[in-house]
Design brief:
alpha+beta; globular; 38% helix
Length: 142
């Protein structure tokens, strides 16, 4: 019975992966691509706008604070707690050594992304692994 249930859950899941290039305009392009994918998957409208903001914040973080390459991964599945959108951005790790600052970055323009992700996500976290860092968030439709 458990094997049948796992098969059904996997059959109802979707996944999409796309690069996050370290260039001007990349975040808006990635956001548009994510919006098209979420529309194709018929993701619940009540979480689409929040999820696109989370995509933007995670992608921006990877471009500004990390080394390339960066990759966005989206997955959508029907889970026990409700339909869940999993968003993650994996990059090659911090661009600066601990204690270094980003010259030319206006602190009034940056620094709120993590708080936004925390406010919008049902769950969120960071995984550090050989070769990089993955920041992730889940949004559950109610």
């Amino acid at each position: 019975m458990a094997a049948q249930l796992n098969t059904l859950l996997r059959a109802a899941a979707y996944e999409h992966v796309c690069p996050v290039p370290p260039v001007a305009g990349a975040v808006s392009a990635v956001r548009r691509r994510a919006a098209a994918v979420l529309a194709e998957w018929n993701v619940c409208p009540e979480i689409v706008e929040d999820s696109l903001l989370v995509v933007s914040e995670l992608a921006t973080n990877a471009i500004i604070h990390a080394r390339p390459p960066a990759v966005l991964r989206l997955s959508w599945a029907r889970g026990r707690g409700g339909p869940t959108l999993h968003i993650e951005v994996t990059d090659a790790g911090p661009a600066l050594a601990v204690g270094e600052s980003l010259l030319g970055i206006d602190p009034d323009e940056h620094g709120r992304g993590e708080a936004i992700v925390h406010a919008l996500a049902t769950r969120h976290g960071i995984r550090v692994h050989p070769g990089g860092v993955t920041r992730w968030a889940e949004l559950v439709a109610v």
